[in-house]
Design a protein that fits this description.
two-stranded antiparallel ribbon, two-stranded parallel ribbon, mainly alpha, 6 strands, globular, 65% helix, Growth Hormone, Chain: A, single chain
């Protein structure tokens, strides 16, 4: 019996440039182009998501520095911020936290629906719609500056709608990448690829921080335009499935639809060429049910682990520039622009952390063990960052870098390689149309934590930053606890295979 495949029309860009069609290009070319296009696409999602954290600095309540020996400021030499109503009152941090909650709640709710829909329609079109909508409402938020809007409900409503559009991105890009790559070296490949989140954060931070001196509205308009431009690239050139252009992955049988001629082409490609596993054939195009996906082995533990991991990561994402601005470094309070740009060090660490976690998990063939080690190491680093981060600029940068590396390492690993592993496991016979659903469940659950983290930080920060860091450390500890059973299973499995000797790794 021939396998069922979902064959869609090639993207229009391939018709504009016939030299990009098979057989003019190799499988490696298409895999590289998919990685590059999805990388750029999701980096633009995160770049458009970053402005609220940067603009908090100028929207929030008045800052009065009392204990600093000097003030570094390039746009506010008197050392005070007047803020922007309705965020400039004593409850300003609460309102800013509620704004984050509005966006991330819509994002997390939308994630579950996006994954379900993504398994049933053309992912290229769905992703394009998500990018265009995200860009439009990011720009619309920035228009509040020129329209002199001071109504809290306006900002909340825009963030809610924007959150729904943003939720489309992640299930789509992970499903597309999962369609093109097998498990061999998946952790390393996706670790490098997943640096798009940190790269997007860095781009968004630099652009938004640099634009602040021209008015905070520009901090939204520029990233919004960027993602809409990238949406055009996705629509023209992203190939969702190898079958869409008649390209065969190792050991698969694909239905080729070239120039309107449909035929079944049984192709066997040696696995050694690209390191893919023949066992990952697409057996069926039938999408898996939502509750059925929840019952897949290890999906729930990793989903709840990501709940707390993402809570921590997104608290840093939305509040780190605000924290740096309010905390003296070597007795100096930094300017808006400097605080925003300095916060990118956390994301630079995140790039290295994602790649390192992916490489290590491939090497020891244990995703849960790798995630747990990173989580445990992040606890003392966060404590040191809170205590010693203000001693000097060097200690601040070094500890911020390590915090980003260890916090984002497991977050990156779980949202990419782990989600792809669980969405293509042998129990569902590698059904690629389960991939977006499983990805949405894992990242959607994590996004609920992401919604709570910034909200709690907004309320708790008024009681002192020590309380915020206590919340972060407690969350990391809980994230680790959810992985204990999976870690034991991994260790036991490796011992039974003879690959591991107790907790040491030996050659097999």
């Amino acid at each position: 019996m021939q396998p069922k495949t979902l064959t869609l029309a090639p993207p229009p860009g391939l018709n504009l440039f016939p030299s990009l069609k098979p057989p003019h290009k190799t499988l490696i070319f298409y895999q590289a182009s998919v990685l590059l296009i999805t990388f750029i696409a999701y980096a633009s999602f995160h770049a458009s998501r970053k402005p609220p954290s940067i603009v908090k600095i100028v929207l929030g309540p008045e800052i009065r520095f009392e204990n600093a020996t000097s003030i570094q400021s390039d746009e506010n030499p008197i050392g005070t911020d007047t803020g922007w109503a309705p965020f400039n009152g004593s409850n300003g941090p609460h309102r800013l936290g509620e704004l984050d909650l509005a966006f991330l709640s819509a994002y997390s709710i939308g994630m579950f629906f996006a994954g379900h829909i993504g398994d049933r329609i053309d992912l290229r079109l769905f992703l394009t719609i998500g990018m265009l909508g995200s860009g439009f409402f990011t720009v619309f938020f920035g228009l509040g500056y020129w329209l002199n809007v001071h109504v809290f409900g306006f900002f909340v409503l825009v963030q809610i709608v924007c959150g729904f559009f943003q939720s489309i991105g992640w299930p789509c890009v992970v499903a597309v990448v999962g369609n093109w790559f097998g498990k061999s070296k998946r952790g390393l490949i996706m670790g490098v690829w997943n640096s798009h989140t940190s790269v997007g954060n860095i781009i968004g931070s630099v652009v938004a921080s640099s634009a602040l001196s021209f008015g905070w509205g520009w901090s939204f308009v520029l990233p919004g335009i960027l993602i809409m431009v990238m949406a055009i690239v996705v629509f023209l050139f992203l190939v969702v499935n190898p079958e869409d252009i008649g390209v065969a992955l190792p050991g698969t049988e694909v239905e080729m639809n070239v120039e309107g001629i449909s035929l079944i082409n049984s192709v066997k490609v040696e696995s050694e060429e690209v390191g893919l596993q023949p066992s990952e054939n697409v057996e069926s195009s039938a999408a898996i049910g939502f509750f059925e996906a929840w019952r897949l082995p290890s999906v729930a533990p990793f989903a709840f682990c990501l709940f707390f991991s993402k809570l921590v990561a997104y608290t840093f994402l939305y509040w780190l520039p605000f924290y740096i601005r309010h905390t003296a470094v070597a007795g100096v309070h930094l300017s808006h622009r400097t605080a925003g740009i300095l916060s990118t060090i956390f994301d630079v660490g995140g790039v290295i952390g994602g790649i390192l976690a992916g490489y290590v998990s491939d090497m020891i063939e244990a995703r849960a063990v790798t995630s747990l080690v990173f989580l445990l190491l992040s606890i003392p680093v966060l404590i040191f960052y809170r205590i010693y981060g203000s001693v000097s600029m060097f200690t601040n940068i070094a500890l911020m870098f390590l915090s980003g590396l260890l916090v984002n390492g497991p977050y990156s690993l779980i949202t990419t390689a782990v989600a792809a592993d669980l969405g293509t496991q042998s129990l569902i016979k590698g059904n690629s149309r389960a991939l977006a659903t499983v990805t949405a469940i894992i990242d959607g659950t994590g996004s609920v934590g992401a919604a709570l983290g910034p909200l709690l930080a907004g309320y708790i920060s008024t009681r002192g930053w020590n309380s915020v860091f206590f919340m972060l450390i407690l969350s990391i500890s809980l994230a680790g606890l959810f992985l204990i059973h999976v870690v034991k299973t991994e260790i036991k499995g490796k011992q039974n295979e003879g690959k591991w000797l107790w907790y040491g790794i030996t050659a097999h």
